[in-house]
Specification:
Structural class of chain B: mainly alpha
Order of helices and strands of chain B: HHHHHHHHHHHHHH
Mean pLDDT of chain B: 86
Radius of gyration of chain B: 27 Å
Helix content of chain A: over 70%
Radius of gyration of chain A: 25 Å
Distance between the termini of chain A: 36 Å
Largest sheet of chain A: none
Oligomer: heterodimer
Largest interface: A-B, 87 and 93 residues
Distance between the termini of chain B: 41 Å
Chain lengths: 287, 309
């Protein structure tokens, strides 16, 4: 905007402008280049080392091979990735389904002390998970629950407060007219939620679901502490083992990290697509 | 039309006493309970009660193994006394403050703000490239971030090449700097996203008006952009500090709190005490300190955000 006006009007008063603007542009591009490089360098290693025959921690041009990926997808490593899938799916279901129900109630029903309750839920989402791990470990130990499924359920609960907030905000934006129309047709509450509210608030519910999945997929501390059995451990704990092992193999480590990271990147791209379209409600209501 | 209808309506309401349920006050709907029950039940059992239980455990002698692993007792302020005279804990508080405020608040916020501003003016292709890379750094799982930064910080790694000294062993010579850089690297993306959205929401006509008044870029930034960004900056700082405070994975994988105790931030120290030194109660107490820390940080920013409005 600035440059077009200055170019169109080469008047003496604004003559200093073009030079200053290009200066700003130059600095901006320089900043982008330098920071872009700084952010790129660690990632570049990941990509290079994953296909490097003699990979080390050093950043170096690779001697191409795919063997690292073969090692990364063999035996225990593949098993750990599958465990990650189980854990994340369980955690996502456990967090999202109750979150949708609670979010609907918070959005539509009269609940005593609604404000303080919502504030409490918001505060919970800010509690560092690190502090929950000791009491939950103690509880699970006494009940014999130090296994994959209970750990996954706990993981789901930790992302629930945040999901309730996201979904509630989306349901708040759904016009009540739709529901009233459904109620006139004698629809039950669960029908209203499943058939009317959920489809319209889908971008929000999808966002919360993806978010819950990513958090569960990425969590390291909870499976590290709550899943003692090595066959049940997910990919992050397996990666920790590869990193800390005596004979560290950098190539497979990089290849495995890359494989483990790809689902998250794909999900974020999906999330970005969901929001690029905006929150399309216009089609649901006429007039 | 409405003005003439209103008195009539009011008169009829006044004339007939209301019968049936009051419609002006919302009633609690019993159908609400089944909807709230799953979320409330799970949050109560696996979130709220553990937080409360954690506060209790902090004042007991619970251990991971040994006789007091089952029959543990309330020991009052014993753990607190130990904490007060624990030199590692004191160091840990300082390191945590440096980590949270240095890397989280200052570096992340500044770099993200500079990037968001530069993206407005930079070449389209370069902006997209830098934006995608910075966001990718945020998107990567914590374990992957720790691994790439571990590799980048050892001799011959990417960071030692960038600083022009391939022999540099950053994890030993500047461990705090390495983990802080990794933390800032991973959080800049989300901050940049928030700043970018806020910058786009600044109306162009305000900037134009300022330009007509011959305000230079710096004045425009200081007098218009910065004040309008203030709420976003506050929210971002709060979010980034809480995320930094909760950051166990990156530091634990990169250094394990070491060398010695040079990167022993509170989450790592709590984990080490509880699960490496088997002292569950002491670990819980350190965790409780973190909650207080988080609450203080949150309170400060809520306060700062409010007073100026």
């Amino acid at each position: 905007m600035t440059d077009t006006t200055t170019e169109l009007r080469p008047d003496p008063a604004t003559e200093v402008h073009p030079r200053r603007v290009t200066g700003g542009k130059l600095v901006s591009n320089l900043v982008l280049l330098v920071f872009g490089l700084f952010f790129l360098v660690p990632m570049l290693w990941l990509i290079f080392a994953s296909v490097d025959e003699n990979a080390t921690g050093a950043l170096a041009w690779p001697t191409f091979t795919l063997d690292n990926f073969v090692v990364a997808t063999s035996g225990d490593n593949l098993n750990a990735l599958l465990n990650s899938v189980y854990i994340s799916v369980i955690a996502t279901v456990i967090s999202t389904v109750p979150a949708v129900m609670a979010a609907y109630a918070f959005s539509r029903h009269h609940i005593p002390w609604k404000g303080p309750l919502l504030l409490l839920i918001l505060m919970l989402s800010g509690v560092p998970i690190t502090i929950l791990i000791v009491p939950v470990y103690e509880q699970f130990l006494n009940l014999g629950l130090l296994q994959l499924v209970p750990a996954a359920i706990f993981l789901g609960v930790t992302s629930m407060p945040f999901e309730i907030w996201i979904i509630k905000n989306f349901i708040d934006a759904v016009p009540t007219d739709l529901e009233e129309a459904a109620r006139l047709e004698r629809a039950k509450t669960h029908q209203v939620i499943l058939r009317v509210v959920a489809p319209v608030a889908m971008p929000g519910i999808a966002a919360a679901t993806i978010f819950g999945f990513i958090l569960a997929w990425g969590n390291f501390l909870i499976p590290l502490v709550l899943i003692p059995s090595t066959v049940e451990q997910p990919a992050p704990v397996a990666l920790y083992g590869l990193l800390g092992g005596v004979f560290r193999q950098w190539g497979p480590l990089a290849a495995y990290s890359l494989l483990y990271s790809i689902p998250v990147v794909v999900l974020y791209l999906l999330l970005a697509r969901l929001f690029r379209g905006g929150f399309a409600l216009s089609g649901a209501i006429r007039g | 039309m409405t003005t003439t209808a209103e008195p009539v309506g009011a008169a009829t309401v006044g004339a007939t006493p209301p019968t049936g349920p009051r419609l002006d006050r919302k009633k609690f709907n019993w159908g609400t309970w089944p909807l709230l029950l799953p979320a409330f039940g799970l949050l109560l059992v696996l979130f709220l009660l553990p937080v409360i239980y954690s506060f209790y455990i902090g004042f007991t002698n619970l251990k991971l193994v040994g006789p007091t692993s089952i029959n543990f007792d309330f020991t009052g302020l014993e753990n607190v006394q130990r904490l007060v005279s624990d030199a590692v804990f004191h160091k840990s508080i300082v390191l945590t403050a440096i980590f949270v405020f240095g890397s989280g608040v200052i570096v992340t916020t500044l770099v993200a703000l500079v990037l968001a501003l530069a993206m407005q003016k930079g070449l389209a292709g370069l902006s997209t490239f830098a934006g995608a890379i910075v966001l990718a750094a945020f998107v990567l799982p914590p374990v992957t971030i720790a691994i790439v930064w571990y590799a980048a910080s050892i001799p011959g790694g990417g960071m030692s090449l960038l600083i022009g000294n391939p022999e540099a062993d950053l994890l030993n010579s500047a461990p705090m700097l390495a983990v802080s850089a990794a933390n800032a690297w991973s959080l800049t993306g989300i901050a940049m996203l928030m700043f970018g959205a806020a910058l786009r929401n600044i109306p162009g006509d305000i900037i134009e008006a300022a330009q007509l008044e011959n305000a230079g870029p710096w004045t425009r930034f200081r007098r218009i952009t910065l004040p309008l960004l203030r709420p976003t900056i506050m929210t971002t700082i709060l979010l980034v500090s809480l995320l930094s405070l909760a950051n166990f994975t990156i530091v634990y994988l990169m250094t394990g709190g070491g060398p010695g105790t040079d990167t022993m931030i509170l989450p790592v120290y709590a984990y080490q005490q509880a699960f490496r030194f088997n002292d569950l109660s002491y670990g819980a107490l350190i965790g409780n300190v973190m909650v207080v820390f988080a609450a203080v940080v949150a309170a400060i920013f809520v306060r700062l955000g409010r007073t100026d409005d």
